[in-house]
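Just wondering, does anyone understand these tokens?
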Amino acid sequence: MTGNRHHIVVIGGGFGGLNAVKTLQEHDVDITLVDKRNYHLFWPLLYQTAMAGLSPADIAAPLRSIFKRRENVRVLMAEATDIDPDEQRVRFASGEEVGYDSLIVAAGFRYHYFGNDAWERVALDLQGLDKALAIRRRILAAYERAEQESDPALTAALLTFVIVGAGPTGVELAGSIAEMARHTLKGDFRRIDPAQTKVLLIEAADRVLPAFDPDLSVKAQRSLEKIGVTVLTGAMVQDIAADHVRVARDGATERIATHTVMWAAGVKASPLGELLHRRTTAPIDRGGRVQVAPDLSVPGYPNLYVIGDMAHVEQAGQPLPGLAPVAMQQGKHAAAQILRRIGGEETQAFRYVDRGVMATIGRAAAVADIRGLRLSGFTAWLLWLFVHLMYLVGFRSRLFVFLQWAWSYATFGRSVRLIVGKDEHAPPRAPIEP
């Protein structure tokens, strides 16, 4: 790296940041990629790690390895905590800082508990590999504790799993738990029958997958119910505690005994969104996303771009969803606008090309809406599998994931059913009876 070339700092090594750096790396610029983790994570398959289907190495790639042959790309494992757009500097939690000529902020999202901080301490979410492993640990440990439990009520509570939020993540989690209980764990235990597992999917809207076409939502719910998932739509969570969930539905309140609650009901932008709002006066929406200019820059700061889950961008009168394809396209676009500014050209407005949405439900079952072509069942699942394999970083990841899926499809097996670490919120063990 040289001291006189245009220096671009990219915060976040997710889909947006990764595609921005890949677009810029071929040009005569210096790039610093900053992420609090040292790897790029393939978020759409994170639930597979939580459900013991894939190991962390199958869905994550070290950032340094991705860019090791690019001498103009520097990777820093650091957490950005402050941005000074006037001084053009980024400060880290360590107290160190770095200057920039152009900045792309792609720091992603965090789960939104809508002000219920106590729920966040009890419910599990998929905010990264560590949280995915925590979900896997909690679910598998629940079966182990149930095997030693003599109280039928506590056994039933241990084998009851509640997912709040029926978007793609919630649907995928619910389907995976149901299949694992009824097939993968079959015959593993002597005192309990994993097939007695109850999986409840709770959604405040009137259907699952609210962002999808209504017909696909109906098909998705039927597929979930077919594999044993109980779907509660039009249901509002009123309380989440260590041993129960309280749900209001149809004018009545129900207390559900459970020791495992997973949260997939909503997200909000990284705290850097609120920080940029204070620093630049750029407006933010209710989810903390910065309302950017048409070219994805922050109004009044043409060298500062916000993309992905942190950016509020409207198209056809609707805000773009927080999806991986949106972030990828925005990363490429923001990088291209920086290059245009360096070359003295005017920037261009971003336009998202919607290639469709999809969600998997279970073994050989999925739904997909590809530009109006609505698919479900095995065909949609094959398409989902192909698309996700192609987006994985690295040939090794694609090969290993494909082999894992092929084995799982043939045997219903999940090869990484390992309980690692300690669950601080686990219910107490019962005495072992002879």
Observations:
- Residues 430-434 have pLDDT under 50 and may be disordered.
- The first helix runs from residue 15 to 24.
- Residues 117-264 form a domain with the FAD/NAD(P)-binding domain fold (CATH 3.50.50.100).
